[in-house]
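Margin note from the TA: students keep mixing up input and output lines. Inputs are the sequences; the output is the structure of the whole complex. Example:
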Amino acid sequence: MIAATIGADEPAKETEQRFTMRPIGWIRKAEGKTRIVLDKKYQPGLLGVDKLEEIWVLYWFDRNDAPEHRNVLQVHPRGDPSNPLTGVFATRSPKRPNLIALSRCKILSVEENVIEIDRIDAFPDTPVVDLKP
Amino acid sequence: MIAATIGADEPAKETEQRFTMRPIGWIRKAEGKTRIVLDKKYQPGLLGVDKLEEIWVLYWFDRNDAPEHRNVLQVHPRGDPSNPLTGVFATRSPKRPNLIALSRCKILSVEENVIEIDRIDAFPDTPVVDLKP
């Protein structure tokens, strides 16, 4: 046996790693209110969220899920050409390799699978991927 | 044409959405130092990160990427049975439907594709999926 032999058991290269996420819910906007509506099956995960005043909402920039947006590595912040070119990892740009967005939101109420929040800078029906205290 | 006809153009159900991420880099620990080593191809995305004092590091709990961990919706925080059962979205548990971790880290230096940070509560070689100011 030669230790360096490349065989079927060779682990995948790190650069070939892929991570898959599913939506746990969606941002809904109606009647002047902003809500995170969880997929019913994830409702048990909300136990205790009603005791929090604020929550981190992690969501997916689904409108940008195309190679031309995901290959962007530098932007003029806020789309203003007078702002110097900046690496996406130093900005909150919605164009970036992994389209995760992060917002701190105030919790107004929690009822069953629905969290009402004060506001969020996201399009209606944007998929939510995680919530954290 | 009947508007309600279900055809090939029917959009996928929201619950069937899937989002794929790739690592942009990995957490390396050696010689008492903690570094985020970016895949070289993402280095242009770091332009301006050297001007920040702190950064949000989003990483993937890759050791838990199995259905038995991703199906967990309630935990005893910090694994202590005396802590009341709590929904994962009210905790920082590494068992959750989407295995994203979030840490605020102090930047010590940025050189080429390497960011030295003060510390991070993650295993060595954990994949990093995003950085935000």
